[in-house]
Every structure is written in C-alpha cells, then in structure tokens.
Amino acid sequence: MHLFYHPENPINGVIVPLDEEVKHIRATRIREGEHVGCTDGKGNLHTCELVTDKKNTALHVLETATFKEKTPRLMLAVAPTKNQDRLEWLIEKAVEIGVHAIIPILSEHSEKPFLKSERLQRVAVAAIKQSEKYFLPRIHELTSFQEVFTMNMAQKFIAHCAVDASKKQLNSVLELGKDALICIGPEGDFSTREIETAKQNGFIAVSLGEERLRTETAGMVATTVFQMKQLL
Amino acid sequence: MHLFYHPENPINGVIVPLDEEVKHIRATRIREGEHVGCTDGKGNLHTCELVTDKKNTALHVLETATFKEKTPRLMLAVAPTKNQDRLEWLIEKAVEIGVHAIIPILSEHSEKPFLKSERLQRVAVAAIKQSEKYFLPRIHELTSFQEVFTMNMAQKFIAHCAVDASKKQLNSVLELGKDALICIGPEGDFSTREIETAKQNGFIAVSLGEERLRTETAGMVATTVFQMKQLL
Is the ipTM reported for this complex over the cut 0.90? Predict the structure, then answer.
C-alpha cells in the first residue's frame, strides 16, 4: 500500500493532500477507490480511500492506527558537506535505517554551508514515505556546535579522526537501550578545541571503524552501529 | 598525498599513467617535483615524483611499500538495482568501509540489468583513490545465483525479508575473523526457491535490522556490520 504524508489531522474524516502529494499520487496512477496510507509523521497511519477526479483529490479516512516511536532514539549531529547531494543521501539512508533527528552543525573546519532547509525536510518526507515510517525525523536548522555541546542526552559521542588515546570504538562504548547523540565532523575533522570542549561536556570520543570515512558515510555507519546495537 | 592508480608494475622505475589518471593528475594541479602515491590495487604503494610538461606525464618511483590485504575478507553478492546510480553508490561506500569483491547477481525477481562493467570498475578505482586503499575490489561480471550458491566461503549468508523462523540477525550469527559471503536481494526480495536452495548450500538466512531496506542500503549495512564485528 502506498504511503503519503500530510502533517495535519483529517478534517471530518477527510485529508486534502498538499500539492506535492497530489503530484505523487498522480505519478503512482492509483485509481479512485483504491486504498492508500497517509501518515502525519507523528505516529499516525490513516488507511484511506482515494477519491479523485481530474480536478480534485482527497483521501477519505477508513481507519487510523497509532504507533509509538521506536526507542531508544538517535540524534545525528553532522557538519554538512559542501555538496548538499551527499547530505541528502545521508538523510535518506539515516531515515531508512532509523534516526530521530538530524542536526546540521557549523564547525570550525567547515565553510558555512548554504542549507536549503525546506528541501532537506522534503528529502526526509520522501524517505519516510518510501521506507514506510510513521515518524518524520526533524531536520534542524544549521546549529552552532556550542549549542550541541550543551544538549542533554543519555549518551553523547563525538566521532573524530585525530590521534587520541582516549578514543574507543563506538560499537564498544555505545550502551543499548539509551538515547544517543552522535557528532560527525566535516572532511577536515573537528578541531582540537571542539574535541576538548565536547569531552568537557560529557561527550565520549569515538572511532567508527579503522578507516577514514567521508562525512556522509560516517553518518550512515554511526546510524547502523546504533540500530544494530539495539538488536543484540 | 594524492593517490593514483596504475594496474602494472613500474618499468625502469617509471610509471606512465593511463589517460584517465593523467586527467585526474591535471585536475589536482599537482606541480612537477611534488610527491604522489600510486597503487596497483594489489597491495603496492609507490611513492613517486611527478615529472610533467605540457605533453607528457610520468611518475618516477622513489620507494615502494607493500601491504597485506586486511582480513577477514567480505564478498558482497548483490542483485543490482534497476538504477545503476545506486549500485555505483554502493560500490563507493562498500569500498570505503571495506569490501574484497562485489558480485552482481541475476536473481528471479530482478529484471536482467544492463551492467556497464567497465564503468563499475572505474567507480571502484575512484573509490580506492579517494579512500586511500591499496587493494582494488574486483567488481565481477553479472553472475547467476546458481554460481553463487556453489561458492566456497568460511561463512555464507543470505539476507532476505520474507517470514522465516530460522532467520537470525546478521550481527548475532556473524563470526569474527572469518571470510564471509553475504547475498543481498533485489527490491522484490529473493524467491522462496532461491532462499531454500541457498540454505541447502550452507547459507544462513539473516536479517539486517528490523527495517525493510533498499538494496544498496542493505549492502552498506551488511558491510558495516561485517567490519564492526572485526573490531570487537
């Protein structure tokens, strides 16, 4: 069953899809009377009947199921790559594998990117529809690392490539069952100052394997390690 | 230090780069006299001095280091996606995280793809240069699943999405320190017959987490799980 997205509650049992969704519905060539799913990205899945003519499209809600968000939750803080394509790939993959939110961060060794936030959020919407998820990860606005340092999470990690005797493999130090915030640095890595400040704020310095990974690959590896840990 | 690729041994201490490499060298604007690396993809890293004028380019070998391939080794057998972009993306990411070979397989539920094998091998070459690896993973020609069934590997897994009481999480059944062959199915999953035949040939049926993943994401997750396991 195809899945569409609409952020608000049905009104009188009807969802009037947003323009992008109408385009998507038309592209799938689903016929009138067929059943489709529609999620609000907040855990609700409405099973609907498509009512359409050449002019208007609406989803008539037949039943609604409510899901709890999977826990524990992962927040990925990532210094965006210059190439926004790669960040979009990361959003798509992280959503597929399982992420609660993605926070693009401004770090010392990265140029201030021009983030098209609306587009990134649309990438996340497309990803939840394709992966059939009912929770839409929030893609934050560009955030300073200072602000990330002070975030409160059960576990906090900073992945970096510098020589650091205290660094452990994420796979070894991640505790299962607890929310986590994992910071992924830019191509030029986090600065010494950022790593020190993070540690002073309770972040554990980690490696993601033995290879030096691109930013978006590191983000996907971290997401995979987090989700796999929960299944052990 | 930039890394280039040349499949053959230096002749009289000189490597004459292939055309694509000359283009790459020119794009990096490395100057004459500067040092660059050149690998043959078989474990050798030649540190070279660039000798160039407007017409000719050559690498004069200063010294050669020989590396052993990291073990254990991972072979990823993947039913290619219709969209070759996604397979190329998987090759890039799998090389980055660590893979020995990728075998595109023809499975019952996938249309026979038109694989541009030369292009896929070039993607692998670009990936080892960017990730600074000295072993070039082999990208096989399209292979029948029958042939894959009879391959001899220390551990063999088939990842699929069907209901299967015998299925385990890859993360749990993978043994560290042993070579592995992991099969990733097409969007339509492996057929019942393929799964049964695989099991009869010693393949263990596995899951890659709890979500249904795209083929290329599944390949990346499997590669990550394999490499992370080795570090425990």
Answer: yes
Which tokens sit at A147?
């602000």
The answer to whether B75 and B101 are in contact (CB under 8 A) is yes
Which H, E and C letters describe chain A, residue by residue? CCEEECCCCCECCEECCCHHHHHHHHHHCCCCCCEEEEECCECEEEEEEEEECCCCEEEEEEEEEECCCCCCCEEEEECCCCCHHHHHHHHHHHHHHCCCEEEEEECCCCCCCCCCHHHHHHHHHHHHHHHCCCECCEECCCEEHHHHHCCCCCEEEEECCCCCCCCEEHHHHCCCCCCEEEEECCCCCCCHHHHHHHHHCCCEEEECCCCCCCHHHHHHHHHHHHHHHCCC
Hey, of A171, A225, A232, which one would you mutate to test binding to chain B, going by the most B CBs within 10 A of its CB?
A171
pLDDT tens digits for A148-202?
A: 999 999 999 999 999 999 999 999 999 999 999 999 999 889 999 999 999 999 9
**Residues B82 and B215 sit within 8 Å (Cβ to Cβ):** no
Q: Could you give the dihedral angle defined by the CA atoms of residues B158, B161, B166 and B167, in that order, rounded to the nearest 10 degrees?
A: 70
* Chain B residues within 8 A of A132 when measuring between CB atoms: 212
CATH 3.40.309.10 is right for the domain spanning A3-66: no
Instruction: Name the pTM for this structure.
Output: 0.94
Largest CA distance in chain A: 66
The C-alpha of A131 sits at a distance from chain B's nearest C-alpha, in angstroms, of: 7
Contact A220 B225 (CB under 8 A): no
Task: Render pLDDT for A54-74 as a digit per residue (tens, 0 to 9).
Answer: 788 999 999 999 999 999 999
Q: Is B172 on the interface with A (CB under 8 A)?
A: yes
H or E stretch covering B138:
strand B138-139
- Classify domain B74-230 by CATH architecture: 3-Layer(aba) Sandwich (3.40)
- In this prediction, residue B116 carries a pLDDT of 87
A21 φ/ψ angles, rounded to the nearest 5 degrees = -70, -35
The domain segmentation of chain B, as residue ranges, is: 3-66, 74-230
